[in-house]
Amino acid sequence: MKMNLPPLLLVDDERNMRLTLETIMAGRGYEVRSAESAEEALKLLGQNEFFMVITDARLGGISGYELLKTVRTRWPNVPVLMITAYATPKLAVDAIKSGAIDYLAKPFEPDELVHAVGRCAERHRLLQENAALRARAGELYGLDEIIGESAKMKSLRQLIQTVAPTNATVLILGESGTGKELIAGALHCLSQRRNQNYIRINCAAIPETLLESELFGHERGAFTGAMRQKAGRVEEADEGTIFLDEIGDMSRPLQAKLLRFLEDGTFTRVGGNQELKVDVRLIAATNRDIIQAISQNHFREDLFHRLNVVQFQPPPLRERGADILLLAEHFLKHFRVSMNKPVKGISPVAQQKLQAHHWPGNVRELRNAMERAVILELSPEIQTDSLPDFHLETRLRKPDANALGGQTPLEERLANYERDLIVNILEQNHYNLTKSAEQLKISRHALRYRMQRLNVVAADNLDEDNANAPLKQPGA
Ligand SMILES: Nc1ncnc2c1ncn2[C@@H]1O[C@H](COP(=O)(O)OP(=O)(O)OP(=O)(O)O)[C@@H](O)[C@H]1O
Ligand SMILES: [Mg+2]
């Protein structure tokens, strides 16, 4: 694949300096764009890709140093070369400390500049190559990475194995944090396309106006800011797989274009009229209620059917029973090693707490909870105190589920309230069912029934007298 070098961005408030530098760099074959202030530079950086920024340290308005800092945080892969007025060691140190890749002190020889820019161009090329290599290697997604011994997770892994080698379009529907990306990655890695590119696009993260040109590319001059022709990601994905994440967020006009693309792999770049064709396998995912989106006319029904050749529905974590503990142990091991902390296990009461939680953020939430617990825990076993205050977090995540203004149905609101209440009482009583039932003035049996109905998971051997007894090993 040909790798074009994007332009470099030159920032200087002195017109003569800009012209001189532009001439030098253009003479060496670089495409140059200039800005006379940091403000203008930031605007350009927001609209276009640049392989590097050269800025004078002293600018009217925002200074070169401030510009440098902003670029470091917002576009960490774009190196910044600083030009300072006099060679004082302090200024040089400041520039490098703030993250400049290099600095030049005025006056400098054109060759010094050319060399510095050459190094950045080389760096850009290497980064691009690395990214392409990584994309081809598909990273390390495999079935082994998908932890879970519940029936649903086992059949999910089975389905991945069956569907991966085919060219079938796949639609993955599941709540946030249920492992949709993991499934998509495994489908690619277990397919014949594994040695080709695996391109991921998050449709919700790219502004609607840019998504089409990101996907299908654009011709030079197709819109303001389209300085060069750009190939679409679908071209990069040729012979490989493209994963469209958060497809529920795609605009309807683009949905129509995607539908056409799915029919036969043809598309035209934005502003172009030549029909191009690629061979791409498509995997799409969303955490939205797609049926509701269709009924509200936000999502095209025909596109849904076209995508929905094979459907995956990773279940919410709360429906995976003992997998909660299996995953908790998995993440515990991971963080114990990476943080080098001697936390060996999870105390029985903490296990109860993990199992009773509703996990609105699913596996991602569990992973974060375990990371935090390993950081905070001072004893050899994770204790409840190191786990988050789940009631608070659940309320934060669902701020208006029970608010008066919301649209949530009564049944769901009542269930939310009941679930919060029961989990609260259980925790107060250290997960002792009998005591909790007494406090609620219902039978132990009735409490169990309600917990099941509300998906409040209890350990199998949750016992009236000894909630502290070690739990059965999950999956055993
Ligand atoms: N079954 C699993 N085994 C091990 N790790 C998992 C599993 N499911 C999810 N994870 C981990 O949980 C985190 C969230 O998973 P992932 O990003 O795939 O979720 P998602 O469904 O794409 O969420 P979102 O809708 O928010 O994008 C990741 O760190 C992932 O590795
Ligand atoms: Mg995701």
Assigned CATH class of the largest domain: Alpha Beta
Number of domains: 3
Secondary structure class reads alpha/beta
Can you tell me the CATH superfamily of the largest domain? Answer: P-loop containing nucleotide triphosphate hydrolases
What's the CATH architecture name of the largest domain?
Answer: 3-Layer(aba) Sandwich
The helix fraction, in percent, is: 40-55%
Give the radius of gyration: 28 Å
For the secondary structure, the number of strands is 16
**How far apart, in Å, are the first and last alpha carbons?**
50 Å
**For the report, how would you describe the main beta sheet?**
5 strands, parallel
In spatial order, strands of the major sheet run: 2-1-3-4-5
Strand content: 5-15%
Describe the protein's architecture and organization.
The structure is a single chain. The protein is an alpha/beta fold and 476 residues long. It has three domains: 8-135, 3-Layer(aba) Sandwich (Rossmann fold), CATH 3.40.50; 143-312, Rossmann fold (3-Layer(aba) Sandwich), CATH 3.40.50.300; 318-453, Helicase, Ruva Protein, domain 3 (Orthogonal Bundle). It has 19 helices and 16 strands. The chain has helices at residues 15-27, 38-47, 64-74, 89-97, 110-137, 151-163, 180-189, 208-216, 233-236, 252-264, 290-295, 301-307, 323-339, 348-356, 362-376, 390-397, 410-428, 433-440, 444-453, and strands at 8-11, 32-35, 52-56, 80-84, 102-105, 170-173, 198-202, 217-218, 230-231, 241-245, 266-267, 276-277, 281-286, 310-312, 345-346, 381-382. α2 packs parallel to α3 and α17 (410-428) packs across α18 (433-440). The longest helix is centred in the first third of the chain and has 28 residues, at 110-137. Residues 463-476 have low confidence and may be disordered. Adenosine-5'-triphosphate binds at residues 146-148, 174, 176-182, 287, 327, 363-364, 367.
